[in-house]
Design brief:
alpha/beta, D-Maltodextrin-Binding Protein, domain 2, six-stranded mixed beta sheet, three-stranded antiparallel beta sheet, 11 strands
Length: 436
């Protein structure tokens, strides 16, 4: 799951099926009043804080240079509001979807413009290809990534790690397992792990499952699983949970032990890494944890010297699979040229170079983005993991129906990790919750 401004359960995507192409007049989705020469755009999105501030600064400069007036509409309940707005023939001109599922459902209904002839092919080719494909429906490009986050990251304490045997990043998943066992043999737990997140408790566990599913089976099988073309309780998923059990849940593998995981908050679960001596040595989480409220302030103040990162390794040294997420830009106003020009800008090499990258709250989806623009070497390295990936996939739970992705998947993974259910029961429960 991606980090959102709210963790409220998503609106069921089936509600979008009530929408029809009549919700878009030829004048545009923003109430039917836009024309080809309109210089007014409304952008709707879900992100907040520094990411929102940096985005506004970037777009406002573009708007000033192009004589465009932009209305920014932030919603902490994006999925509900976008459904309501579209049903009322009052869609924004541009939407930045935080989840691919609802975007694809709206594209299926003919509500979004095809971007294939709007965004330059050279720009599409410069974006991370797995992220680009997430914006496609039936071979057409209905949305483009305008930001990404990276989840296949292992953070570790630089100075202490060498003494524990972490002298170089593991090159394969087998290497990572061997390293974990080596650290455990010294009497110190190798992993930090916490899945508590209020009403959304359990989502960090789903990220682990998704990451291992991708590593073990590749993006094709991963996407089949996410789309329920293979059952949730397929033997491949059971094997992944067994692997996760060995790596994280066995005695001596996680700081605080298995029973502490469900009550250990994901934001601060890594902090024992920075104790002296460390209480654990590795933490797999997204780039968003390395911020205030996550890592201790003293660590953040000297991040590059204190924290090291390596990507979750593949089955072989040549495999570089990455689990991530991001925001996808789509156009409702099909004949508002300014809206089209804005989305072209969001895909261009210039987007993000006017200070947005330096905030540290945004990662460009362009593989040719200058990583020196990021404020730390750590963030530059994390971005490079995505740029050099051999397979990039979006968070699976964000693409599943709400009753699964932010419902049974969270709940039953929590029950399994807490020892309230065995793995088979958890997977069977999730499979049976999948809507017909």
């Amino acid at each position: 799951m991606r980090i959102r401004s709210t963790f409220a359960a998503s609106v069921t995507l089936g509600a979008v099926a009530l929408l029809t192409t009549g919700c878009l007049s030829s004048g545009g989705g923003g109430g039917g009043g836009n024309s080809n020469t309109s210089k007014n755009i409304e952008i709707m999105y879900a992100f907040t804080t520094d990411q929102e501030t940096g985005f506004k600064g970037e777009v406002n400069k573009w708007a000033k240079d192009n004589g465009v007036t932009v209305k920014f509409t932030q919603s902490s309940d994006f999925n509900s509001l976008i459904n309501t707005r579209v049903q009322g023939n009052d869609a924004p001109d541009v939407a930045l979807f935080p989840q691919p599922g609802i975007m694809k459902d709206m594209a299926d209904q003919g509500l979004l413009a095809d971007l294939s002839d709007i965004v330059d092919k050279s720009d599409l080719d410069s974006l991370i290809q797995g992220a680009v494909e997430t914006g496609q429906v039936n071979g057409k490009q209905y949305a483009i990534p305008m930001s990404i986050n990276v989840k296949s990251i292992v953070f570790y304490p630089k100075k202490a790690a060498a003494a524990a045997g972490l002298t170089q990043p593991p090159q394969t998943l087998d290497d990572l397992m061997a390293l974990s066992k080596k650290i455990a043999s010294t009497g110190t737990t190798p992993w930090c792990f916490g899945i508590e997140s209020g009403a959304a408790t359990g989502w960090p566990a789903t990220d682990w499952v998704e990451n291992l599913m991708l590593i073990n089976n590749g993006s094709d099988v991963y996407n089949q699983w996410v789309q329920h073309k293979i059952p949730f309780n397929d033997p491949k998923v059971a094997e992944t949970l067994d692997q996760m059990d060995q790596l994280l849940l066995a005695d001596g593998m996680t700081n605080g032990g298995r029973k502490s995981i469900a009550s250990n908050n994901f934001n601060t679960a890594a902090n024992p890494m920075f104790d002296n001596p460390p209480g654990c040595y590795m933490y797999r989480q997204g780039n968003f944890v390395a911020k205030s409220g996550g890592f201790p302030d003293k660590v953040l103040a000297d991040l590059d010297n204190t924290v090291g990162v390596f990507p979750m390794p593949g089955k072989t040294a040549e495999d570089k699979p990455v689990l991530g997420g991001g925001d996808l830009a789509g156009i409702f106003s099909q004949d508002n040229q300014s809206a089209k020009d804005l989305v072209k800008f969001l895909a261009s090499k210039d987007y993000g170079t006017n200070g947005y990258a330096k905030t540290g709250a945004w990662i460009s989806p362009r593989t040719d983005f200058d990583t020196s623009q990021y404020p730390t070497q750590v963030l530059g390295s994390i971005a490079t993991f995505a740029y050099e990936s051999t397979e990039f996939v979006f968070d699976g739970s964000d693409q599943m129906p709400g009753e699964v992705g932010s419902g049974s998947f969270w709940k039953d993974m929590t029950a399994w990790i807490s020892g309230q259910e065995d793995a088979k029961t958890a997977l069977d429960n999730i499979e049976s919750s999948w809507p017909s």
